[in-house]
Amino acid sequence: MSKIAFIFPGQGAQKTGMGKDFYEQSQRAAEIYDAASKRLKEEMEIDIRTLCFDENDKLDQTAYTQAALVTTCLAMARTLEEKGVRADVTAGLWVGGKFGFPAAGGMVGVGGGWGCLFFTSFAGREGASGESWGWGAHI
């Protein structure tokens, strides 16, 4: 009996063009990027599709990176699930670890994962401000 694990990346794995092939080839991924763009455009003052797909100076800034990674991971995971590939276990680094819960089914539906997206967007902006939140662990 084989098991499938989804391992999600942390900050530093971002790359211009990430997820663009999913966006162009999967209706489900396109819905996720489009919805994330709509929800975060006012807050972040950038379209998440532009942030992920086009060369820009913001993708490597913590205030934007985390929302871009979460959106991309959510789009990829939901596309795979739509094709019948479901994770038996999820894990990840920093952003990826936070994303494991919604990817594992903790948040479902078209809106699934938005709590994670808004949290990482907020955490990225706060972290970029230099303000310390102390320390913590995610289990």
Strand order of the largest sheet: 1-2
Q: Biggest sheet, open or closed, and with what strands and sense?
A: 2 strands, parallel
Oligomer: single chain
The total beta strand count reads 2
- What do the pLDDT scores average to? 75
Describe this structure in words.
- Helix content is 56%, strand content 6%.
- By secondary structure, the chain is mainly alpha-helical.
Q: What is the topology?
A:
Elements: E1 5-8, H1 20-25, H2 27-44, H3 48-53, H4 62-82, E2 89-92, H5 95-106, H6 114-128
Parallel strand pairs: 1-2
Helix pairs in contact: 2-4, 4-5, 4-6
Question: Could you name the key traits of this structure?
Answer:
disordered C terminus, mainly alpha, 139 residues, two-stranded parallel sheet
Summarize the structure.
By secondary structure, the chain is mostly helical. The protein has 6 helices and 2 strands.
